Amino acid sequence: MRPIDRNEVLGIGEYEAIRERFRNRIIEEKRPRRVRIGDHLTAVFENRDSVLFQIQEMLRTERITSESGILHEIETYNDLIPGEGQLSLTLFVEIPDRALRDQMLVDLVGLEDTVSVEVDGVAAKARGKRDASVLEDRTTAVHYLKVDLPAEAQAAIKAKKAAVSLVIAHPRYSVKAPLGRATLEKLAEDLS
User: Which Pfam families does the protein's record reference (predicted)?
Assistant: First the structure.
């Protein structure tokens, strides 16, 4: 997928004029891309539209208007766009209760190293950058991960014949979440 270009990013005023329509479209686009993984984790498979939306929302929320600030956000979020033969996902630890969430973030240390996408029984390990600002004895609530798929897995997904699951193999949280047909359709689009 092609990275987001500067000329695609609207100024705050221009974005406000289309925000409601754009936001509603992205919510619908993300619905089949969102996968529940057990009781406490959710993943969203990212694409250009979801990344552009995140950039626009960050500029709006943080009131970023300087050219250097805008370029920084574009560069930062472009890391989420999958490359050739890749899937990109954001993994969320979603626990409303603060005390339980804090304990789970300690229990799930190393979570980002235990994620894979399984295609027809063959696992492709996810990888991501470890946040250096996080203590070594805990994980973070949000992880940005990419998965390089072998050619056979890509072909099976594109043909819409694959059995695909998101797998977490953490000693404290082991789960396999099969992806539904609508999610597989979106992944086939991403790989095309």
Answer: DUF3501
The β-bridge relationship of strands 115-119 and 122-128 is antiparallel
- Dihedrals phi, psi of 55, to nearest 5 degrees: -65, -50
> Tokens in use for 94?
């979603």
Mean of the per-residue pLDDT values of the chain: 92
The whole-angstrom separation of Cα 111 and Cα 38 is 14
State the sign of the Cα–Cα–Cα–Cα dihedral 31, 47, 163, 178.
Answer: negative
**Token couple for 24:** 């509603």
Burial class (CB in 10 A: 0-12, 13-18, 19+), 162: buried
Would you say 106 and 135 are in contact if contact means Cβ atoms under 8 Å apart?
A: no
What are the start-end ranges of the H helices in the chain?
A: 12-30, 48-62, 67-78, 98-107, 151-158, 181-191
R_g over Cα of the chain: 17
User: For the chain, which ranges sit under pLDDT 70?
Assistant: 130-135
Copy the structure tokens of residue 81.
């766009």
